[in-house]
């Protein structure tokens, strides 16, 4: 039901991890994501530690879900000196192509403990339903 839109994104993520570069608005970094089905919802869980909820932007256009977030440096005093900086800063983005069987009008998003959870309901027409099998006697009653 979900499709990756860029097969090279994982290679970019690995290269950025080794090079230590953060993303920019023109070339955002990837954010780690898990996707799974939970009952009648598809769930996306994205790691965004250190990002404030106000810095997260979620859009859906047709069947393309776009999530962008920005992690800024911690504001410190001018006298301080950074000794070690390993946490990536900058812009993070993820695009997910959604199937037609998902209800894009009722997407919900929650952010807790550095994890953004996006829940996308399955449409009614895509849910499994029972089909009644009629026998020969049932058909005669309907036609008579």
From TrEMBL:
UniProt xrefs under SUPFAM superfamilies: HSP20-like chaperones
Protein name: Hsp20/alpha crystallin family protein
Residue span, SHSP domain: 24-136
Family, similarity comment: Belongs to the small heat shock protein (HSP20) family.
Signal sequence region: none
PROSITE patterns assigned to the protein according to its UniProt record, in alphabetical order: SHSP
């Amino acid at each position: 039901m979900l499709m990756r839109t860029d097969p090279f994104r994982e290679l970019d993520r690995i290269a950025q991890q080794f090079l230590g570069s953060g993303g920019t608005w023109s070339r955002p970094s990837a954010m780690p994501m898990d996707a799974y089905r939970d009952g009648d919802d598809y769930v996306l869980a994205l790691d965004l530690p250190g990002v404030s909820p106000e810095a997260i932007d979620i859009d859906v256009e047709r069947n393309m879900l776009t999530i962008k977030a920005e992690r800024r440096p911690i504001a410190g005093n001018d006298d301080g000196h950074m000794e070690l900086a390993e946490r990536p800063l900058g812009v993070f983005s993820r695009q997910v192509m959604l199937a037609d069987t998902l209800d894009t009008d009722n997407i919900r998003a929650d952010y807790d403990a550095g994890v953004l959870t996006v829940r996308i309901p399955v449409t009614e027409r895509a849910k499994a339903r029972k089909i009644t099998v009629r026998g020969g006697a049932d058909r005669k009653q309907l036609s008579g």
